[in-house]
C-alpha cells in the first residue's frame, strides 16, 4: 500500500522516518565529523564500520586508480584515511551511501538521469573551486552532489506519486513547477532545503539555495557546476552553455576557451568518478565529449523521452471515431491524428503532406517531432514524373499503407528516390495515403529516425488504424461541405 504525502512537512517526515533513515543517519554523522575541528581517524572509521557493505565499497573506491594511483593496497578504513585523506574518504562514503540508498530501491530513469547530472555537477564544481579556493573543494563537491537532494529522494522513494509526476511531466507544454506542486504539495527546491537543514549537510549546501549568498566563492562554484551539468544536456555548443562558460571564465580569471577546455576535462572526469563509485550505469547519461558520441547521445536523450502511451493512443482513436460521426473540424481532426501517432503510438517524427500547386506537388502541411521544423519550410516534392516514380505518389495511387524497410516492401526500395533520402534520411518509415473517401488529399509519413530505433508491428497497426479513421473523418467532412 503506497502512502500519499502532501506538503513539505509530510514529505520530510516520510523520507526521514520511512524511506531513508539509514542514509540520513550516515550523512548526518559524516557531516558532524566535518564540522569538528579535530575529528579523529578513528571516529570516521567507526561511522563506516557500522555498515560492512559501506566499508567494503569505500575500500574498493579507495583502491581505484582514480583515488590511489600508487596502487598501494588499502585494507582498512584508517589506512585509507592516511593514504587518500580524511575529506576524500568522507566524500567517497557520502557518495556511495547516496547511490546505494537510492539506486538499489528504484532505478527509474528520472533518478538515474538526475544522479548522473549530480555527479557531473559535483566534479565540475570541485574543479572550478580549485581555481579560487585553497580549501573547501570537497565540501563544494558534496554541496553540488546534493544540490537536488529533494528531487533525488522523491524519484527514489516517491512510489505511485513518482509515477503520477512522470506521467504529468511527459505531457507537451507542461509547466514543470506547477506539475511538481500539484503532486507533492511543495516544490523540489523547498524539499531540498528542508532535507539539507534536517540532515545538517553543511553551510555551503545550505547557502547554495539562498540567492543572497551568490557572491560567496564556494557557493558560486556549486551554482556554476549545477548549471554546467544542466546546460550540457542541450549540447556543448548550446547558448546556455556559452553563457555559463562565459561566467565561469570571469570567475576563474581565464578566457572562455580555457574555461571550456576545463569543462570538457571535468565531464570526462565525471564519467570516471561515477564508474569508480560503482555507478557505471550512470556513465552513459553524462554528456560525452567526443564529437560523434555527443551527436549520438543528444539524439538518444531526445528520443528516450518518447515512448508509446496506450491510454493516449486509445483516446485519440476514440476521438477520431467521434469526429467521423459528428461535424468534425478539419484542424481538430489533423491535430488528433498527429498527436495520436506521435504521443500515442510513440512515432518520433510525423509529417502530413498535401497535394498543392494544382495537384502538381506534395507540400508539408503539418509536422511533429524533433528535427522536423525545416520540413514545413522546404519539403516540396513534385508529383512523380513518368521517368522517376516515387513512394509518395505510389501509396496515394494504390491507396494502401506501406512499411518501408521490411522484406515485404523491398521491391519498392527504388521508389525512395535520392531527393526523398536527402530530405528525410535513411532507414525504416511508414507511409500511407491521406484520403477523403476516395478523393486524394495527400500522404502521411512517420519514422523513428531521431533515435534510430526500429519501428514495431504494434506501431504499424496503430498507424493503419489512424489513417483509416482519418479517411472516414475527411469523407464525412467533405460530404457535409
UniProtKB/TrEMBL annotation:
- Determine the domain of life of the protein's source: Bacteria
Cite the HDOD domain residue spans from the record.
Answer: 20-215
* InterPro entries to which the protein is assigned, alphabetical: GAF-like_dom_sf, HDOD, RNase_Y/CdgJ
Give the signal peptide range. Answer: none
**Pfam families xref list:** HDOD (PF08668)
Q: What protein name is recorded for this chain? A: HD-like signal output (HDOD) domain, no enzymatic activity
The organism encoding this protein is Pseudomonas borbori
The organism's lineage is: Bacteria, Pseudomonadati, Pseudomonadota, Gammaproteobacteria, Pseudomonadales
